Structures are given as C-alpha cells and as structure tokens.
C-alpha cells in the first residue's frame, strides 16, 4: 500500500528537485554556449582554410600584374585608400546562396567579385541539434560604401562574417590558433556532456520515485483545496466520510502528522451529525472482491442494506455448476483458476491493457469455485467428458443368460428382477449411460432439481427482506409484505416441491400396494394445474387421483389462502400508513454550519461512536413519504409484479435443466463424432487418426464446451441472481464509498 509523504519529505523533495532542475538548466545553458562557440570557431576555421585555398589556387594558375596589383597583402583600409580591392569572408546557409548572389550583384551593379565553396560536412545547430549546411564565400569589392552595403546584405541573409587577414602568414597563424582552441573547446564539450550524462543518469534512477511522490503531493494539495478556512484563518476544516472501524487509524494519522510537521495547533477529529445518506463501503479481500463486483454491477447497496455478496459466494458457483456439471470440464476450469490464484502475485505485477485477461484475472476465485463445484455436480451426474464411472459398483445386474443377450439388440430390465434395492453410493448409477431411455430419465431428474433449487433460492431471497425491514425500522412491512409473500410462495410452489419429494419416497416398483407402484405415480405438473384450476383428472384403474388422503381439500385451502394473501399485499401497507397518518419530511441535504459543528464540540471519543440507523426512506423500495394515491399505485405495481414473477421466476429456473441437458448432449456428440473416429482402427493408421481426432476433440472441448458453454452458464447464473434472487429484497440505490487512496490514484493515472 503506498505510503503518504510526511511534511519533511515534501520539503526535502522540493529542495532537491529545485537544486537538480537548476543544475540541469545551468548545464544545458553552458552546453549551448559552448556549442555556439564551437560552431563559430569551426566556421572561422573553414573560412580561413577556404580563403587560403582560393589564394593558393590563384597563384597556381598564375595571376597577371594587374590582378597582383589589385590584390595585395595590405589591410582593407590601406587597400581602399590606394584604390585597390578589399574583401570580406564569411558563411551563409546553402539554400540562400542563389538569392545572396543576386542581391550582391544588384546592389553593386556587377562590381562585386564573389567566390564560394560548399562545406563537405554539415554543422550542428547548437539550439536544436539539427544539421545545417553552409557555404563559405569571399566577396571582393572596391570602396568603403560598397563594403557597408555588402555587410547589410550579409546581415539580412543571416550570413556570419569573420575577420580574415589579407596576409598569408597571418592567415596560417590564425588557422593554427583556431585549431588549438577547437581542440580545447572540444575537450571541454566532452567533459560537459559526460557531466550532464552522469547527472541525468542519477535523475533517471530517482525519476520513478519522484514521479510517484509528485503525484501524491498533487493529490494531497487537490484534497486540501476542498477544505474550508477557519474563522481565525489559522487552520483548515474538512468534512469526510470515514468507516467507523477506521476512526482510530485516522485519529492516529492526524496526531502523527501534527507531530511530524511540528505544528503548534494539533489536528483533531470530531464526529458530527449529518442528514445526508452515507456512502456504502463493503470491506473486501482478494477472495470476496470478485463476488462483490458482481453485486455492484447490478447496483451499489444503499447504506446498511443487506449485502447479498456473502451468500453469492456459495449460490453463484453452485447454480453455475448445476448447468455446467461435468467432472472433466470442471477440472479444466478449476486448474485454470488455481493457476491464476497461485501465480496471482506475479501476474498482478504484470500490467496489461488486455481487457479480456483483466476480466478473467479479476474473477480468478470465482472461476476456481465454479470449477470445483462443477466437479462436484459432475460427480453427482456421473459425467466426465460424456462418460460415466463405475466407482462403487452398479446397483443393477443383468438377469439374462448369454444366449438371450446375443440374440436381442435391446432388453428391458425390470427393477423387481434387476435392482438390488440399494441406490448407488453417490450420484446417478452408471448403468443409465447405456440405457436408451437415458435422456427421458435425466430430463425428469434435472427438471425437478431445477424447480427445487429455484424455489428454495427465491424463498431465501424473500426471507432476506426481513433484515432490511427490521434495520430500517419498517417492521410493519414484515407483517404486511413479507408474511403474505412468503405464505403465497410456500403454499403454491414449496408445496409443489413437497409433492416431488413425496412422489420419490412414496412410490416404488417394490411397493405391495398397487396404488403406490411405479405405474400409478401421478404427474406433479398435472396435480399442480388441477390445484390451480380447481379441476380433477380421473385416475387409471387401480390407482388414486391424489398421493395421500385429504390432498384435494388441503390443495383447495392452500389456493384460497394464497389468493387471500394478494389483497393483504395490495392494501395492507397503504391502509396502515393512511391510518397512522405517518408523514416523512425530508430535511435539507446539508451538514450544517461547519464551524459550529466542529469547533464548538469537544473531541469525540472514538470508542463511543456507533453507526446510526438511517431514516426509514433508506434502503430501497419505500415510498412512505408520498401521497396515498402514489403509495397505492406503487404498491399495486409491486403486488402485480410479485405475483406474476413467482410464476415466471420459477419457470426461469428451468434454464438450469435446459443448459445442463444441452451441455451433456454437446459433450456426448463431440465424443461420438470426433474422438470415436480415431478409435475404430487398431493399427498404425488408427494411431495417426487418433492423434488428429484427439487434437480436434481437445480443441472443440476447450473452445465450445469450456469457454462458450462456460460463458453461457455464467451469464444465465448472473441473471438468476440479479432478477430472480436479488429482486426479492435488494434495491441497490446507494453510491460507492471512494476513500482517499494513493494506490487508486496512481493506478487511475497509469491507466490514463
């Protein structure tokens, strides 16, 4: 966790940064001046060399007496006095030479003799470091007036003029002196460059820590700008939300800060009353953070509202596993999740912008639990890559002899003859893997499990609303909303679950009573439909319409009581509020006078601070402060939604059965149509075919059954929690608590 800098560190850092900045600026300025001097000396060297080369070339080709008399070794002033030619030498940028020549010709009307030579190597601009190409020129003229004109043209074209002695001896001496100065200057430049390199290397080593420190200081100053000034203009006052458990830490931090900076006014902390709804802070760790993110994606809980993330840790991977149940596929997912969990320190240190990987890594514990639960349900389904395992021995045996088995393609096994009346130790008997009616049996089994899990899940969600009603002081809703809802749900759908269990227990092929044999078992769906419609279905001969005596009467009572719960849900709460004439007036959203709330109070004893229950309007579905007509409308919508949703949500849990069946069938099809292709030939060709078939089988298993089917099951599980479960008690109308955290600030800036 990043640490906050103390005042002494801030002062030292500011002084060190200022010193380093001044040193670097001074080095840069000196380097520019040295490069400028080096450039001028280099240009002077080239001017002298080119001028000497020009005179040498004239001597080689030979000059007539007139030229020798015009160009002598006299100075410019003496040459002008005696009417001889003078000259100026310098350098000009190469791209300006044509225009420079034309301008000299125009101002002198052709009376200037210009010689030029291009420099072979480019020079370096001392300010930008770019390469510049220049040309050395020597202009011969007669008269001081023409000389001043030439200098003005050179100034306009930014040409650099350098003194060039007319005497050959003086030029050679000057060239030697310039070369010596260039060598000395080059040595100084190298030393300056090395010194600056050492300074920059030392800065580079500290740059990362300095950058973090500067960003921390920036965040601190930004937060301090949100504070209010005290009436005495001597201290700052700030209001903030602090978790109650962290108040001692905040108090200690304030005391340590005051001692560290040597302030004469100690920092103190007071807890003040506020009418604003506090933000929601759920303390999480690496394991629970992923599940809390699933809940926050639906909506942040209101302050002190019941948080479903704790129960989601178990229910989410379990419902996922019901749809994804396969021991092999679950093992692959669990291994992937375990790898991310074991390597989480090294993987989290590798920052990446891959959004898909970041999502997987953030949900590594969810993936691990989903894989482990899928292994468990796969063991219950006795399904591993579409095959079954006979670990504990089948409870069925074949009563037929060998000749009967050889002459019959399919035979029926009567439980009275082939079943030992002891179920398989855990899960489904492996004999069903070879049965032709396997799908019919598994359909009935998984469909009933889906309804059972769904009804239990919804009842648990309705019961969780009691926690919110009790905490937010709306206990009348326990009697006027919760009880009618849970009675309505239990008398209809929990009763249907009871009939499923009763049918499994009461009816058996080995039963002595004909009415309770396998053939007389009534359909639970037909019984439930007849119960709702108050109708009857004639049973077959020797069978009974109902499962037990008095079931018809009990069902009619259940339906009537459930129907009576609807008007209680619709009218109970509005009439209660009307009779009590309970009115809520929302106070102004303000924390009051800052100075009066803080300065005039003594410092709060941290141990006495207790979380204050929020007003009754907090925590979600509540409209108590609205007019009676509005309350009736909201309650009517809520009642209609609940009554209809009990049916639709119960049917929605059938997706557990549908996706489980689809996953099992896809796995079986992939095995029979791909991997079996390589198992037919028992020779060298078969080995090659098996190698290729296994590659495609493994690829499609990972791509389709693990990834695509896993994503589909994940989304359906998420919907079951958001819609079917959390809608029973969770509002999610709060806002998240965002503490001042250096780690969060640094991570956000790095992402940007």
Automatic annotation (TrEMBL):
Q: Which first-to-last residue range defines the signal peptide?
A: none
A biological-process GO annotation: vacuolar acidification
* Metal-binding as UniProt keyword: no
Any GO molecular function: ATPase binding
| Residues in coiled coil | 10-37
- Please provide the record's keywords in A-Z order: Coiled coil, Hydrogen ion transport, Ion transport, Membrane, Transmembrane, Transmembrane helix, Transport
Q: Which family does it belong to?
A: Belongs to the V-ATPase 116 kDa subunit family.
Protein name, please?
Answer: V-type proton ATPase subunit a
Q: Which organism is it from?
A: Pararge aegeria (speckled wood butterfly)
